[in-house]
Amino acid sequence: MTDSSWNLVLLGGPGAGKGTQAEKLTADKNLEHISTGDILREEVAEETDLGEKAKSYMDRGELVPDELVIEMVNKEIRGEEGYLFDGFPRTVDQAEALQRVVDLDGVVYIDVSREEVVRRLSSRRVCEDCGANFNLKFDPPEQEGTCDKCGGNLIQRDDDRPEVIQDRYDTFLEKTTPLIEYYRGRDLLREVDGEGSPDQVYSRITKALDKF
Ligand code: AMP
Q: Most buried residue among 3, 37, 86, 99 by CB atoms closer than 10 A?
């Protein structure tokens, strides 16, 4: 199997580093990155119908209803091969919908403790313009408040406020962790320790992918 024909899922809680790892993986393996969180944030920014419907759920740290997200992802999928799904699926219903349109080759679960999630997300900042992520503690921008990549303004995501982080983690435990067993039962799951530097985690992921 060539890298670009893989269909992979990155599974993990909020702040597990899915976005950071997905960026590297899609570049290295020539995959198309489908991040439902990124697509939803764009819909909110553009004030589309979907964005209007999704916003209140996102602000509360809850999941956007399955039917909206499934329809949105189905529109993104044009062929059968070469996708990296990041932040999708997040429920068993979403996983079943995905299975109907794509043959998955593997699912990587990035495991990070609740304490580490709170530490990471409360110091995360994102660029208003290009969406690049920084971390005030672990990966600060060169100039405070300014994006290194495009010079845009760095802001805190509404859902990275401490009270919302706890709700997002609870939602993850309740709705998304059942997917770990779901994919393990289908022999698709590889688990990776998500603590440590992004490069350390990336090398664990590529090792895990060698086993598929
Ligand atoms: P993320 O950037 O992946 O953490 O997603 C941010 C927010 O978007 C989540 O807290 C949810 O409100 C919403 N969201 C993203 N992906 C999904 C999904 N697959 N299902 C439902 N809601 C989602």
A: 86
